[in-house]
């Protein structure tokens, strides 16, 4: 599967792109994970939005934040793929592209993430190292990880 990738700052997103981003984030984080939380947290306006498109369908997404928004370091968050592309290495491509985009945008600087604990090995595959104890966010165990 060959996706079309876009990297767009918030103020350049179209209404349709923003709608598809929010729709997919709700589908994965709220509906699939049975987690009620405030997804629109005011950080989107500071973010660059990396989107993987299969035609007009958004199937992969992250938001990339500059240093000082979520953490002292740059960060990558809201990492997700649609169910239709899971098991096809789309998540790996998404994360690699997200790291490259963060370096392109902010320089080769450390990247901090808040990872769901069950994805620790996935992120370790990109060189991230655990740098916190387990904590709970919206009743889901997380750890902080950093890529130096």
Key descriptive features of the protein:
3 helices, Aminopeptidase, alpha+beta, 148 residues, eight-stranded mixed sheet
**Tally of helical runs:** 3
Number of domains: 1
Strand content: 25-35%
The whole-angstrom Rg is 14 Å
Question: Between the first and last Cα atoms, what is the distance in angstroms?
Answer: 31 Å
CATH topology grouping: Aminopeptidase
Proportion of residues in helical segments: 25-40%
Helix and strand string, N-terminal first?
A: EHEEEHEHEEE
The overall pLDDT average reads: 94
Please outline the major beta sheet: 8 strands, mixed
Explained architecture:
With 148 residues, the protein is of the alpha+beta class. It is 27% helix and 33% strand. The protein is built from 3 helices and 8 strands, in the order E-H-E-E-E-H-E-H-E-E-E. Strands 1, 2, 3, 4, 5, 6, 7 and 8 form an 8-stranded mixed sheet that branches. Strand 3 (57-65) and strand 4 (74-81) form a beta hairpin. The longest helix is centred in the first third of the chain and has 18 residues, at 15-32.
Describe the secondary-structure layout.
Layout: E1 4-9, H1 15-32, E2 48-54, E3 57-65, E4 74-81, H2 90-106, E5 111-116, H3 120-124, E6 129-130, E7 135-137, E8 140-147
Parallel strand pairs: 4-5
Antiparallel strand pairs: 1-2, 2-3, 3-4, 5-8, 6-8, 7-8
């Amino acid at each position: 599967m060959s996706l079309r990738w876009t990297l767009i700052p918030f103020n350049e997103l179209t209404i349709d792109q923003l709608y598809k981003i929010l729709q997919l984030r709700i589908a994965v984080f709220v509906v699939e994970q049975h987690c009620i939380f405030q997804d629109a947290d005011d950080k989107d306006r500071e973010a660059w939005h990396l989107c993987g498109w299969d035609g007009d369908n958004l199937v992969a997404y992250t938001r990339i934040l500059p240093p000082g928004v979520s953490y002292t370091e740059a960060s990558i968050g809201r990492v997700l793929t649609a169910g239709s592309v899971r098991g096809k290495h789309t998540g790996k491509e998404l994360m690699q592209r997200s790291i490259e985009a963060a370096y392109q945008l902010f320089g080769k600087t450390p990247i901090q993430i808040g990872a769901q604990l069950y994805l620790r090995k996935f992120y370790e595959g990109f060189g991230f190292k655990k740098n916190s104890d387990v904590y709970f966010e919206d009743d889901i165990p997380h750890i902080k990880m950093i890529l130096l």
